[in-house]
Amino acid sequence: MSGYFRMGPETHAISMEMYRENRERTMKALKTATPGIKEGSVVLLQGGQDKSLYDTDVDYVFRQESYFTYLFGVTEPGCYGCVDVFTCRSLLFVPRLPEEYAVWMGRLLTKEDFKLKYQVDEVHYADEVNTVLASRNPAVIYVLKGKNSDSGLIAQPADFEGIDKFNVDYDALFPVIAECRVIKSPKEIEVLRYVCKVSSDAHKKVMKYVRDGVSEYEAEAVFLEHSYRVGGCRHVSYTCICGSGENSAILHYGHAAAPNDKILRDGDMCLFDMGANYGGYAADITCSFPANGRFTADQKIIYEAVLDARNAVLEAARPGVSWVEMHRLANRTMLKKLTEGGLLKGDVDEMMRAGINGVFQPHGLGHLIGLDVHDVGGYLSHCPPRPTEPGFKSLRFARPLQAGMYVTVEPGCYFIDILLDRALKDPQQSRFLIPEAIARFRGFGGVRIEDDVLITENGCENFTKVPRTVAEIEAWMSSK
Amino acid sequence: MSGYFRMGPETHAISMEMYRENRERTMKALKTATPGIKEGSVVLLQGGQDKSLYDTDVDYVFRQESYFTYLFGVTEPGCYGCVDVFTCRSLLFVPRLPEEYAVWMGRLLTKEDFKLKYQVDEVHYADEVNTVLASRNPAVIYVLKGKNSDSGLIAQPADFEGIDKFNVDYDALFPVIAECRVIKSPKEIEVLRYVCKVSSDAHKKVMKYVRDGVSEYEAEAVFLEHSYRVGGCRHVSYTCICGSGENSAILHYGHAAAPNDKILRDGDMCLFDMGANYGGYAADITCSFPANGRFTADQKIIYEAVLDARNAVLEAARPGVSWVEMHRLANRTMLKKLTEGGLLKGDVDEMMRAGINGVFQPHGLGHLIGLDVHDVGGYLSHCPPRPTEPGFKSLRFARPLQAGMYVTVEPGCYFIDILLDRALKDPQQSRFLIPEAIARFRGFGGVRIEDDVLITENGCENFTKVPRTVAEIEAWMSSK
């Protein structure tokens, strides 16, 4: 089906129109942000390259760089893409492959094939990028360079032999395109809705699968299978976190040194944080539930404290509201419930000032999500800076919400020895803790409830469709 | 379970003894290969590092570098490993992580924990590699540098700040350790047997799953699910190739630009080449079968030509036999059957001289397999060089078989337009082709039968356990 990306007949069709719209929005924004920008200027992005596993001839399955996906939707490695800032005329540069490669790769697409497939205006070979650009004599070539505020890594600007002969701007594009990515278009929203639905269904399948004696990685395998076989999602958006028992308090559990290899036991809480990826677009969902499908009284206290925090945010989130305030609201709600539950004592506002919220939830309320799971645009220069107060410094953005933003809402409550020990030793914090209750919850693990939520004109829409209340979870897990 | 790698209770337990034995074999071989090697010399390897997806904070799931796995079995990134050549005393250097990381990674292992986990003699921090080595004043540090003959890439030698103060040898280790990896130890053989069994079972599940209307990627998902959920294999050894219909003739189908997204149709042949990976050790199995479970007469001709080739090799493979001769035997057997089947005419030996074998099978008979799917040791300096005759140049090794080698046997027959067109135009080749028969097979795709086979003292043992004859395949696919 030319002009669309679609994995299978039952999976979402992404129209190449979406990328054309993304190009138009970005060019328009670049013109607005760059007074005096000259006609004949172009934007040039370089796509990702194949990566080999060390010195072997095994490649990782190629995943396209996100900015390149945003503007072109191209799934092949080794490309460049160019857009005229004023006319939006689009040029795709594709690798020139030896005829022989057909034996290994299948029929090689012609330039005309690429033009149809990606609905661009011109296609050239990547080794022609210098000569094709030179023949157009662009006033300025805008390339992408800037710091990812989640990783601290730098987006690498497009480069080719001879680029130093051109007038290249490394500064203007990055904040503009990152800002464009923050507000999702209607077509992007439908992709995000799809991948969130697939991920929700996969989580539901996992909840029915688990029981005493199952290994954590089995749950991961069940999630991956549904996402791919049913949803056409070959990748997940991040390494699956499938913590059970005390592992459910390890925020990035599931990495190679802790590879989801514990056996689920009766009485364990499970915290499974997994999200599929479709066409480069991410889901990021966490479900927390008891391994055996029935909450204990203690599990219910913690779970409902987190659920109340999540509900308060879903109720309050709307354009104009500060994300920092949403974080505060979630944390306050949770601490209030923990106080009612007998774990804490004292005034919630004082607890917040003492940073008790960061003891139980050492991460931010959520993050922007889109083509990256921790999506770009959190701390651009026009945005409020990262907060410095205790319990707020892990926030991945601090800006007011706007319609079209897509965010995770993911309050959590964890019993992490190192943080509890520090708090118990700190007189400013220990006065709020009820030691015997805290002791009872050592080894409990943690609870996180994470939804993917679109900010709308009047509020928000939760794309995540999984059992969330204690009653819903128990009913779902006990049904066959 | 300290001293073992095991993913789950039903999966294979790899004893750390295996790595100790690998170290001892390698040190012994290094001494033998290096006359005058000085006491106090050490081998130093550097393990892999985490890799991020572009500039984001998403990491690929870490996979350890194969030589490092071979000597140490360590699954964490960021390590060094050192072995005293004469005493075999082993030192592991692990990253020094900030206490805070416990929140994200789980309880940080102490040096004592690492010592128990990997059964090494000493553990230090990676930032101490310079000072610890300096305190021992090693005569020579042997590091690993050499070219991978499958990828053409260079294994990167261990490096650390201050290494230039030491006496470092970059040449001696590579051929020695690569040669050690060629001959599998009894413990390695048990790992390979396990991962081959898991992969065989996963293929069998796929064969039962497929039918008209299923997408190729669904088959991939079913394979991945079994390998991981049942077998504990989080990774596959290479990108799954799930070609159906004409895609079954594309040797590296399944890559990002051809991502197993065709729908299987009645009458298609399927060629599914997939292998799980356990503890770093690879399987590599191809099953070919009709999508609907019943061979047509034409499918049977091609399938049985390939099966006869495979059977001839399994019958003949034993120590002392040249792999080049095995390739010749397979190709001759296949061409003979294609002649009987009405596709070719003339004398098989003349066909071989004209390179007709390379028209139908443009790849080698198989390759060494172990920690890498295309394992090391194919063209070391003491080995016969890559053959130059037509139809033989793709061989990944040319050395005589030895007991303890582990190889794939993977004859194939494909109808690839570009190769058929060239052959039909070449008078030296076209005289053997029966054009109307060749025309009938255009779009047929291809057949490959690939087994993972251990060379034993007296012959070989096939670790791959899947239905192979036409009757076995039809019976398996029709049973419920």
From TrEMBL, chains A, B:
Residues 14-152 form the Aminopeptidase P N-terminal domain. One of its GO terms (biological process) is proteolysis. Its cofactor is Mn(2+). Homodimer. Pfam families: AMP_N, Peptidase_M24. CDD domains: Prolidase. It catalyses: Xaa-L-Pro dipeptide + H2O = an L-alpha-amino acid + L-proline. GO terms for molecular function: manganese ion binding; metalloaminopeptidase activity; proline dipeptidase activity. Belongs to the peptidase M24B family. Eukaryotic-type prolidase subfamily. It comes from the Eukaryota. Keywords: Dipeptidase, Hydrolase, Manganese, Metal-binding, Metalloprotease, Protease. Its EC number is 3.4.13.9. This is Xaa-Pro dipeptidase. The keyword Manganese applies. SMART domains: AMP_N. It is an enzyme of class 3 (hydrolase). The keyword Manganese applies.
